[in-house]
Amino acid sequence: KHIPADALAVFTIRAGDLLNKAGYEQPIDIPILADHREAITEMSPFVAELLRDPESLGLNLAEPMYFYVQHVPAKGNNAGAGFAPLLGVVAAVSDSNALEVSLSRLVEARLGGFGRQVMNSLKEENGWWILNTNRLPLAFAFSKKVMVVVIRETPRPGESLAAPLNAAVKSTSGLPATQPDFKRHLDERMDIDLWWNTRRTRQVLATGDDAGMGALLAKLTDSQTLSAGAFFEKGAAAWFIHQQSAEGATAMTGKGLE
Fold first, then answer.
1. 41-50, 204-213, 232-241: which has the minimum mean pLDDT?
2. Which segments within the chain are labelled E, that is strand?
């Protein structure tokens, strides 16, 4: 329910299941992620760190981790044309005390002494511990059950991430309530999967600096949504691709990933 209703795409990983099946120690070692380790680190050092050892951070790997992308343009003097991506993470919490310590360590590792000062801004509100300040490229909140993080790796000067964080935290229904296809997608229960609102993405990219990319995407697909996922078993793998268009739904399934 904390995945925003206007999320453009959602990547889901059931890290606990994958690690148990494949025998890897950390999610980032899973081949589909390890092959893109540098790109993940460049996109968001925080997410890369999260994938290295989420269990020690106090997260519950028995539950899925969700990574989503929103289009959240800055307002006022910080507003700009084109796609303004905001990355979010929603994950179940197993130990909120360990999570607080780990988040403090991650912030301090990024910002040094200033990070320790920033962590003093952590506040408790209605069962949530919240940190949002315009001095950080991320904002986060966590309770005893769930963690929500929003990240803008290249924030505009003075930009605050409080609004998208608060919206995610206070959401009571989220994306499944507004996108029936995403609700269907959740029922597929793959080990690793991606859901993409292609129609909304085309709309976001249709104007401004990204119009060329929007035109390219329009040529590639006229679907409303696309989703794909994989489920692994010992010595085998199954995959699916699902497309929802104005004419209806089409799906493909198969075995093996070669």
1. 41-50
2. 9-13, 65-71, 85-92, 123-125, 128-131, 138-142, 146-151, 192-196, 225-233, 236-245, 248-255
Q: Is 181:244 a contact under the CB 8 Å cutoff? A: yes
Do residues 55 and 61 touch, judged by C-beta distance below 8 A?
Answer: yes
Residue entry with tokens 């000067």: 157
pLDDT at 214 over 60: yes
Q: How far, in Å, CA of 206 to CA of 91, rounded?
A: 32
CA dist list (Å): 160 to 13, 111, 118, 157, 229: 28, 17, 14, 9, 34
Measured at the CA of 77, the angle between CA 71 and CA 78, to 5 degrees, comes to 35
Burial 38-66 (b: 16+ CB within 10 A, else e): eebeeebbbbbbbbeebbebbbbbebbbb
Amino acid at 114: F
Give the tens place of pLDDT for each residue, 47-103. 666 666 666 778 888 899 999 999 887 665 555 556 778 899 999 999 999 888 888
The answer to whether the CB of 150 falls within 8 A of the CB of 141 is no
Residue 229 has φ and ψ, to the nearest 5°, of -165, 170
Task: Give 31-40's long-range contacts (Cβ < 8 A, gap of 24+).
Answer: 32/192, 32/230
Token pair in block for residue 60: 């519950």
201 vs 254: CA distance, rounded Å: 27
Q: Is the pTM of this model over 0.85?
A: no
The two structure tokens encoding residue 116: 């320790």
The candidate with the shortest Cα–Cα distance to 88, out of 200, 6, 178, 191, is 6
